[in-house]
Amino acid sequence: MSKQPVVQLDHITKVIGNKTIIDQLSFELFPGEVVGFLGPNGAGKTTTIRMIVGLMAPTAGEILIQGIDVQQDFEKAISHVGAIVENPELYKYMSGYKNLLHYARMVDGVTEERIDEVIELVGLQNRIEQKVSTYSLGMRQRLGLAQALLHRPSLLILDEPTNGLDPAGIREFRDYLRMVADKEDVCVLVSSHLLSEIELMCDRTLIIQSGKLIGEKQIQKEEVTAEAKKQIVQFQVNPVEKAISILQLQKIVLLYSNQTSFEIEIERDNVPKLVKNLVAEDVSIFAVETRVKSLEDEFLEITGGKSVD
Amino acid sequence: MIKFIRLIQNENMKMFSQVSNWVMLGFYFVIIFFNVAMAPVDETDQFVADPFSYFLSSADTPMVVITTLSIIWAAGIMAAEFSSGTVKLLLIRPVTRTKILWAKYTLVVLYALVLSILYYVLTLMFGFLLYTDASLSSEGVMILAKAAGLSFLESLFMITLAYMIAVISYNRSLALGVSMFLYLTNTVIAFFLQTKPWSKFLFFTQLNLTKYASHDGAVSALNTLAFALCVLGVYFILFVVATWVTFSNRDVAS
Ligand SMILES: Nc1ncnc2c1ncn2[C@@H]1O[C@H](COP(=O)(O)OP(=O)(O)OP(=O)(O)O)[C@@H](O)[C@H]1O
Ligand SMILES: [Mg+2]
């Protein structure tokens, strides 16, 4: 990508007490990208986000938003950012509208029309005059998103935004994110530990563990993966031993087997040939299931499935 | 500057959206009316000659209420943002922390000021209704003005103290507890410490300013209103600086 990065983190380190929570973290995000920020509990996702939005100061390193240092010129840098940090905590004793009015007054140039536009965008027009204390969690998430979008930020940071949304809400949210990213050329950083979520809505994923960036992955679109990528395929057959000996002849890597089935890694184009061979050798096939290696597998592979430290 | 005014407007909107604020204001008006209802009909004391002046100079309960309400707000207005987590959305706007800090403070000071003026006006008004022979030139009118003004200064100081404790500790109860304790017991503490010459440099022995309103309340030649204001002024500046320095540099991790 030749575009100017929206955010640059340059060797960010955060030490609290004598614990290094973030360790030399560096990455760049570009316009129009939806980037997943993935990591197990306590990995340092929220801490990183807090530093980007200036709630915490890094111990070392530099954070630039549109080329402006957050620590040096906070007001200018932060005017490009809209964010939800952890839960969208709003003023419960006020109506949704008053909440938005409150944040609108804190920036220049947010008109009443813009407030209405954002309300419509997140679909809250029917409940906006009611107190936030009467809102469901999903509605609060929507209002949280509305406040983050008011001033047309070029960077949208969302910390676990699908927390508490129902499946329909999650899907809608996902579509919505894609729309703002594409239409308004907004860069979106979404943190989550819900791997499947990230996989569905992001172009790229940063994987963080114990404050370190341990992986970065371009998520491929399904049509690409389906053809070129090796897949994991599970066969339910009988007898398994005979089938395995055929596999060995064809030099196919066996991943796993038991009395009724086996799993192999194989390219899509080679599957029909293998099935033909098995049938020719009189092996009964009960089921053939493909499984694209999911981000979850990869995530567990990379992080080693370790527990929170 | 316009931005600062909009911030105060915001704080004001939040304050008046809370039910507790209306309850407290209701309480304030009840106390003022109660004070009027309890007015003596025909009494004087050694300082004032006429009953009207006596009524005005003895109507001091509402002032305690004003300061108490101000302390409650000063303790809560920032601490509440931290305990509810709303501070995270508040501080990620293109507004410096300094502005947010002082906008909240300013609103509480304005609150105390408006309640003090309202108290003065209402009490005077009821005085004229109760005492038909009252005149604006009575000495009570001046005494009441002085008392309301000095009480406002007490409120201002207590607001600053409570706000500092709340901002440094993020703890509303601590700020409220310490400030109310000192406000309610300062005369007792001052009394017990009066033999110690250094005690007059402690802010809580100088907190009672309203005693200077009705007569020369000086404890000694050295302990005058001017001296009290100087001592309080020095502490005031210290509190303001401490509040400001902590708030503008601290990591927000709530
Ligand atoms: N104020 C703090 N003081 C000390 N340690 C902290 C503080 N804030 C966070 N930590 C520690 O930093 C680490 C990272 O925390 P962080 O909240 O950033 O994790 P996270 O990736 O957001 O996790 P989760 O998925 O649970 O939200 C944790 O080990 C946490 O205990
Ligand atoms: Mg988190």
Automatic annotation (TrEMBL), chain A:
Which Pfam families is this protein grouped with? ABC_tran
Q: Which GO terms describe its molecular function?
A: ATP binding; ATP hydrolysis activity
Keywords of this protein's UniProt record, alphabetized? ATP-binding, Nucleotide-binding, Transport
ABC transporter domain: which residues?
7-235
Q: Which Gene3D superfamilies match?
A: P-loop containing nucleotide triphosphate hydrolases
UniProt-listed InterPro entries? AAA+_ATPase (IPR003593), ABC_transporter-like_ATP-bd (IPR003439), ABC_transporter-like_CS (IPR017871), P-loop_NTPase (IPR027417)
State whether keyword ATP-binding applies. Answer: yes
For the keyword Transport, the answer is yes
Which SUPFAM superfamilies does the annotation name?
A: P-loop containing nucleoside triphosphate hydrolases
What protein family does this chain belong to? Belongs to the ABC transporter superfamily.
* Name of this chain's protein: ATP-binding cassette domain-containing protein
Organism whose genome encodes this protein:
Shimazuella alba
Organism ancestry: Bacteria, Bacillati, Bacillota, Bacilli, Bacillales
From TrEMBL, chain B:
Transmembrane segment boundaries: 21-41, 61-84, 105-131, 143-166, 173-193, 225-247
The lineage's top-level taxon is Bacteria
Q: Does the keyword Acetylation apply?
A: no
**Record keywords:** Membrane, Transmembrane, Transmembrane helix
**Which Pfam families does the record cross-reference, listed alphabetically?**
ABC2_membrane_4
Indicate yes or no for the key word Transmembrane helix. yes
Residues annotated as signal peptide: none
Name assigned to this protein: ABC transporter permease subunit
Q: Which organism is it from?
A: Shimazuella alba
